[in-house]
Amino acid sequence: MRFLSMLLFCLVFSSAAFAQLTPNCTDISPYVVYPPPLTQEQINSINASQQSQFPNVVKLAEPTSSYNCHNYAFVNSEGGPEFWLNTPGDDAFWNDASYVVSTSTTASNLKVSYQGDHTAVTTSVVNQAISKWGAWGLYRHNITDVPSSYLPNNTLTYYTRSLPTISGPSLICTNGSFALNNAVGNVSWAVAPTNLVSPSTGSGAVANFSKVSNGNGTITFTFGCNNSVVSTSFRAGPYSSSDYPIQGPDYATCNQYVYYSIPDLPGVTSINWSWPSAWTYVSGQGTRYLALRAKSYSSTVSVGVNNSCGSSGSYATKYTYVSGCGYSFIASPNPADAELTITYNETTEEKEAASYRETFSKDIQVALIDLKQVKRHVEKTSKKKFSIPTKHLEKGIYILHIVTSEGEEKQQIEINH
């Protein structure tokens, strides 16, 4: 039992084989050792002791002397090699500001220093940690469910990685400059995608380049002795419609309030919504959010977004099918044979108002679209009743699009001849 308890601590074995550094380049190799491996008898004995003394912990890896708690927390869990790191080698990680005291104790991947010379790593579960217990196994456990020697006074200190900051613009219209502040060691940078700016590669803590094309990009700085990385995103040039897809309903009922929105984008100078004139505007013009009241027929809501680089001239669109209002136009016969007749479906109010006007004022565009072949028959008219020849069309299901100054309506039409 004395042997097993001793293996819970960081004991000095053989000397380091090669140099090891903290992220901020402090040499910890004088505290790195490579002990001899455990025998199978020792491994079995440790596992038996763990099961009897700490039955609630979850074993993630078998006992081994190839690494210990300090190596796991600061090196191995960050992708580094396994070795035994004696104290005060672990102190170097916060003494040189590679890690700083965290204001949070509940975030994941915090390094937890126990007063009893132990280190753990927090998980996404509050009060849960993962740590290597000397030469014992790697365990997931309640943060205080550890040997009593690790917690003589229940004192825990939480550390988080201290990364240098990037200064630079979120929007680049012509030229951009980014700088990595307070970095240690060699620094290089790269931009992705590479066709956004020129040059797209370089070195040093300052990156200067010119915009080549429009799009969303990321600049990444690589720095320090262990090639740590930090990155930030930016926009090059005006936004395009693919940058702000409209979120909103595919279906609505007549007179229902409907809501649309677009993503939050940096550097936006104006947002311009458009909607069917028959629909009722509620609120939101000029903002990310638009509220409308669906009226009379299905139609398309669109939006254009400008930033300080200008406008791409493209609009994002969202079609919403509205039921319950009735069609503004009647298409017959359906199924159609040689000809499809389209008649404007006047309301009582419109018939009464017809005496004050001599002609039908709506300019109408009609498209008959084949769902399989994407063939399109288009006509323009201002008549209340007109016909579309369909004898030349293949037999099948089509979508009739009727667009007026007030909006758009869709109906399903079958061609059967």
Q: Can you tell me about this structure?
A:
The chain contains 5 helices and 32 strands. It has 417 residues and is mainly beta. The protein folds into 4 domains: 160 residues, no CATH class; 72 residues, Sandwich (Immunoglobulin-like), CATH 2.60.40; 83 residues, Immunoglobulin-like, CATH 2.60.40; 87 residues, Immunoglobulins (Immunoglobulin-like). The strands form 8 sheets. It has a 7-stranded antiparallel sheet with strand order 2-8-7-6-5-9-4. Strand 22 and strand 23 form a beta hairpin. The chain starts with a helix and ends with a strand. About 5% of the residues have low confidence.
Summarize the structure.
The chain has 417 residues and is mainly beta. It is built from five helices and 32 strands. It has four domains: 2-161, no CATH class; 165-236, Immunoglobulin-like (Sandwich), CATH 2.60.40.10; 241-323, Immunoglobulins (Immunoglobulin-like, Sandwich), CATH 2.60.40; 329-415, Sandwich (Immunoglobulin-like), CATH 2.60.40.
Topology record:
Blueprint lengths: L1 H5 L25 E2 L6 H14 L4 E4 L7 H6 L9 E2 L6 H4 L3 E3 L9 E4 L3 E5 L5 E5 L5 E5 L13 E6 L3 E3 L3 E2 L2 E7 L5 E6 L4 E2 L2 E3 L2 E6 L3 E9 L4 E9 L14 E3 L3 E5 L6 E7 L5 E4 L5 E5 L5 E9 L8 E8 L5 E4 L6 E6 L3 H6 L10 E7 L5 E6 L3 E5 L6 E9 L2 E9 L2
Parallel strand pairs: 11-18, 19-25
Antiparallel strand pairs: 1-3, 2-8, 4-9, 5-6, 5-9, 6-7, 7-8, 10-12, 12-16, 13-15, 13-17, 14-16, 17-18, 20-23, 21-24, 22-23, 24-25, 26-27, 27-30, 28-29, 28-31, 31-32
